[in-house]
Amino acid sequence: MNKTFHSLGLAAGVLALPFSPAVLADLVGDSHASLNLRNFYFNNDFRDRPGSAGQSKTEEWAQGFMLNFASGYTEGTLGVGLDAIGLLGLTLDSGGGRHRGSSMIPDDGDGAASEWSRLGLTPKLKFSKTEARYGTLLPKLPVLTYNDGRLLPQTFEGGQVTSGEIDGLTLTAGRLEHATGRGSSDRTGLAVSGGTRESNQFLFAGGDYKLGQDLLAQYYFANLEDYYDQHFLGLTHSLPIAEGQSFKTELRYFRTTSDGANATAAGRAAGFRVGGFTEDGTGEIDNHTWSAAFTYSIKGHALMAGYQVVSDGSNFVQPNQGSLPGKGAGGASIYLHTDRMLASFNRAGERTGFAQYSYDFAATGIPGLKASVMYLKGEDIESLSGAGKSEWERDIGLDYVIQDGALRGLGVAWRNGALHSDIDPNQEQNRLILSYSLPLF
Q1: CATH of 6-439, one of 2.30.40.10, 3.40.50.720, 2.40.160.10, 1.20.1050.40
Q2: In the predicted model, what is the mean pLDDT of residues 370-392?
Q3: pLDDT over threshold 60, residue 5
Q4: Contacts of 94 (CB under 8 A, 6+ apart)
Q5: pLDDT at 228 over 90
C-alpha cells in the first residue's frame, strides 16, 4: 500500500514546505485542499467484432483519488504560491480478455495495471491582475482542452500566463511541452491523431473580450511545432427573453494549416503526419471547420440544435497523443460541439447536424437531478476507403447529486452512447460513475 499512496503522500507533503512563519501564514491563509473520489465502471460493446473477428468487449471497474491543493499568495507586489495535484488509480476489476489498450486503465505487460499514479506541482506568481503558472496544467481553452472522460484527467506540463488588467478582456498565452494521458503515468511529447513523432512545443495566445453582459468575442492562435498552425474565432451571445427564458447563440470557426515537418514530404514520411483522409494522400494538415449552435432555455428545459462543416483537405486536429507508439497516451478532447462519447465528427468533408434536449428537475422540486439526450448525424465523409461515408451517434446522460443528509454531495452519473459508423466499428458504451469531493481545509 506504500506504493499505492505514493503520489497522494507526496502531494500532501507540499503543505509542509519549510517556509518562514510569516510567509507560511500568508500562503496558508487563503489555501484550500480537497480529496476528490471517483468510482468508474466502463463497458464498451464493439458490436462489429464478435468471436474471432477481434475483441468484442471492454469492461473495467476502477477507483480514483485526486488530491488538489491550491495555496494562497505571499503578501507584497509580487505574490508567490504553489499548487499541487496528486492522482491515484486502483483497478478493481479487469482482465479475462476485457481490457483493451489504455482507454481507462494503463497496460501492464499482457493486461491491466493494478494501480497507477502521478504527482504534479505548479509554482505560481501574481502581479496585480496577472498570474503566471509553470508546471502541471489543466488547460480549458478553444485551442486546447484537457480530457476528463475517464477515471483520472489528462494533464499537461508547461507555462501559462493569464492577465485581466483591462476590464472585460482576459488575455492568455503559454507554452506546453509534455502531456500525460488519462490512462497513464508516463509523460510524452505532443502530436496529432495519426502522428507518430513527438513535438515538444505547443505555443498559444489569445483573448476573451466581454462586450457587455451578454456578448463574448474570442480569438486564439496556436502552433504545435512541426504539425500545425491554428486560428480560432468565436462569438457567444445570450439573449434574455423573460424570467427563466433565454436564447443562446454560439459561432465557432477554425483555420488549421501545416507547420514545419508536416509541410514537407520528408517530415511526413518521418511520422509528422495526420491520420485519416488527406488531399492526394499526403498526410498534410489543411482544414477549415465552422459550426453554429443555438440553445433555447425555458425554466428547466433546454433545447440545442446546430450544424458543423469540416472541409475536405484533412481531418480537424488539436493535440492528440494516441498514435504515439507504446505510450498509452490515448484520450484527447477537441473544442467542437460534436466531440461526444464515442465519436468527434471531425473527419475530412464531414457535415454534421446535431440536437440535444436536457432537463433540470430542480424546476419540478427535485434539485440535483438532470437528464439529457443528444443525437448527431455526420455525412459526406472523405475516408481512406472512399467518399460519401456517414455515421450517427446517440447519447443519454442522467446525473443526480444528493442534496441533504449524511451523503450530501455524493454524485451518481450514468452515460449511455451508441454509434453506427461506415468507418469505425458499431458500438454501444455504458459508464456508471460515483463521485464525491471531501474538503480538507
Answers
A1: 2.40.160.10
A2: 96
A3: no
A4: 59, 60, 61, 62, 105, 111, 112
A5: yes
